[in-house]
Structure formats: C-alpha cells, structure tokens
Write a structure and sequence with these properties.
The structure is a homodimer of 185-residue chains.
Chain A lengths: L4 H14 L6 H12 L4 E2 H8 L3 H13 L3 E4 L8 E4 L3 H16 L1 H12 L5 H40 L3 H12 L8
Antiparallel strand pairs in A: 1-3, 2-3
The structure holds a DNA duplex (30 and 30 nucleotides).
Chain lengths: 185, 185
DNA sequence: TTAAACTTTCAGTAATTTCTGAAACTTCAG
DNA sequence: CTGAAGTTTCAGAAATTACTGAAAGTTTAA
C-alpha cells in the first residue's frame, strides 16, 4: 500500500481542502485514498498509508459512511472490512452537495420559519422579519431547485450544463412558444 | 443598539452557522447584525451589541469586506465609520457562493491541472490520473455553469429556478426544435 | 502641531477541534 | 468455551483556530 508520488500529492491536497469541504483533514485524506485506489482497502492499510492512528481511521471511515461517500466491501475469505467508494465521481459530488445542504441550509430554514411565526414586537422587528423572510424564500428556491436538478439525473444535467449561455436563449424561446406557462411550480 | 429578541435569535444562529458557511462565529454574527439593522451601524456599536472586543470586531469587518458582503458607509458629520450590507439579499448570497467557489474549488482545479501534466509512472498512477481527470472535468463544468448562471442575472435565474420540473420538459422540447444545436459551448 | 477620537495590529491566552492509544467490545474458528 | 483477529469508543493530549486588550497607528479639528 505504498502510495505513489502522484497519489500522495492528491491525498495531501484533499486533506488540506477537507476542512473547507465540510470535514476534517484525515477524513479528506481517507476519502482521496479510497477513491484513487483501484483495489478495496482495509482500515489498517489506510492507517498505515496515512500514518494516522487506528482509532482516528475508524472515526474517519464512520464519518465518510455517514456522508454516504464510501461503503464497506466484504471480501469472502477475509475477516476484516474493506472499503470502496460509494459510487462514481458524479455520484460522490452529488452526495457532498446534498449532505452539505442538509448541514448548511436546512437548520437555517427551520429557524427562519420559527422566527417568522412570531408577531413582530415593533417596527425594527417587522423590518428584520421582512428581511428574514427574503432569506427564507431564497433558500427555499435554491433547495427546491437543487432537488429538481438531482432528479434530472446525470445525463440531462450534463446537457443542461453544457448548454452554457444557451440557457438564456432557451428561456426566451420558451416564453415565445409557451406563453403563460411560467407557473409550473 | 439594544437588540430585540428576534434579532438576537437570528444573530446567534448566524453565528453558530458561520463556521459551516466558511467564516467564524463572530463574523457570522456581525454579518447578521449589519444585514438586519436598518440603520448603518458603527464598529463600536457592533462590539457592544455582540459583547466582543473592539479588535475582534475590526478583524471581522475586514473579513466581511474581503468577502464583499458589507461596505463602509461614510456619514457626513461623523468621524467614525459606519457599515451597511454590500447589496440586497440576492447579491449577498451570490457573493458568498462565488467567494466559496474561489476558496473551495479553484485551488483544487489548479492542483489537478498540474498533476495531470506529469506522465504516469505506472498502471496505478495511470488509473489514478484518469480519476483525477474526471474530477477535474466535473469541477470545470460546475464552475463554468455557475458563472453562466450569474451572468443570467437575478430575473432570468429566478425564472429558471421557478421553472422547477419544467426544466426537464424544456430540454426535451429544445431537442425537438433545435436538433444538433447541443454544442453551444 | 497637537491631541482627541477613532482604527488596526498582534502577542499571548482561551476555546475548540482533532488525534492518539489503551481499554472495551465483537466475531468467529477450533 | 477460548483466544486470536479484528473493530470501536472515549478520555486526555496535541494542534489549530479564534479572541482579547494593550500598544501602535491614523485622521482630522482646532
């Protein structure tokens, strides 16, 4: 399980970026190692390759499983657990996206909903509430849309993304062809 | 500058979420306070309202300015600086998005480009490189697309988002109407 | 040019987060 | 059963990140 220089660089980078992506250094490193490795890899091999404690490895793997980024792969004859990525690159990116939405947006939406239920105590509060409402609506649109996009599936999503500036033109086109169909939601 | 209960709750929550959104607790609190406050507010008032040191306040404001989320607002007669949001809610959300892309995606794209330049040393490296390439392409699409969407401007973007599941249907429609126009990029 | 009013910086401290490793637990072959 | 091979947990140590407050810096009115 000696890492090649290329893999080492990538693993180290994913470690450094880890905290910006919502997990910590070792979790990022473990993820990179599992993704870049062609073979299923055991917890012990991971600990050795990254020079981290067995306990830390176990926690990192647990977290990656909670993010649904890696999964266990049981090898028939073997006693120990092996790990592999939970899907292709596209799937993994999606999972990170979704999981982050849950952690970064959902709690705020829920708080905002609560705060908007109370009657404002005075003008200041009324104005603040109005702004909180704007934030809530924005987050709601973004959430709904991201779910929509996920439902499109990889192929269509790719078509849409590759469309580039064509999206703008397409919207115009649609307005001409299907007037009054804006309220699809 | 006594905060009302509503504003206090919101400010505290934005503080707690701060770290998940890419900055720290006080920065989140300061942002919320500036956004929810109708009047421009001075650094000293912020420090008092949040019970944080003047130094910390100054650093937080500096960071928020580097994110282009708040800006100075010079009041004619006054000596001190006042602060206000750098735009409406939509603009602010966009800035956070953009700024995070810079911090979370761009460095990785740049590393991946470098790693893909080297010739693979063996089969393992060749395979890893292939995966890194996939990641690179994915990030590139996402980046390009998010720029595209920003160029659409708020109104069109909103139309697109509100379209909901209509997007899928629209893509089908487009294929029928404009066959062979997929390669807009 | 002075000094009052304000801002920024930064060394040291406090708070938080991550990591280790030993102990407890689980599973299974013999 | 028993113990070997493995995993998980968690209290404390280490590392990182955030915060304070005093000192240095800046600006402007007089």
């Amino acid at each position: 399980m000696k890492m090649t220089p290329l893999i080492t660089s990538a693993v180290m980078h994913f470690g450094e970026m880890g905290s910006r992506w919502g997990f910590n250094r070792t979790v990022g490193q473990i993820l990179a190692l599992i993704v870049l490795n062609d073979e299923p890899i055991s917890a012990q091999e991971i600990a050795d390759a990254l020079n981290i404690s067995r306990g830390n490895t176990s926690m990192g793997l647990k977290e990656l499983q909670s993010w649904r980024l890696v999964k266990q792969h049981l090898v028939p004859g073997e006693r120990k657990d092996f790990f592999i990525p939970a899907g292709d690159i596209w799937t993994l990116a999606n999972r990170v996206f979704e999981e982050r939405r849950k952690r970064e947006i959902d709690p705020t939406m829920s708080l905002l909903r609560d705060l908007l239920l109370d009657a404002p105590g005075n003008d200041k509060e009324a104005s603040a509430q109005h702004k909180l409402n704007e934030i809530h609506d924005l987050l709601e649109s973004v959430t709904a849309w991201s779910e929509e996009l996920q439902n499109l599936g990889p192929e269509k999503l790719n078509t849409l993304m590759k469309l580039g500036s064509g999206v703008g033109r397409m919207l115009d086109l649609k307005d001409k062809l299907l007037p009054g169909k804006n309220s699809v939601n």
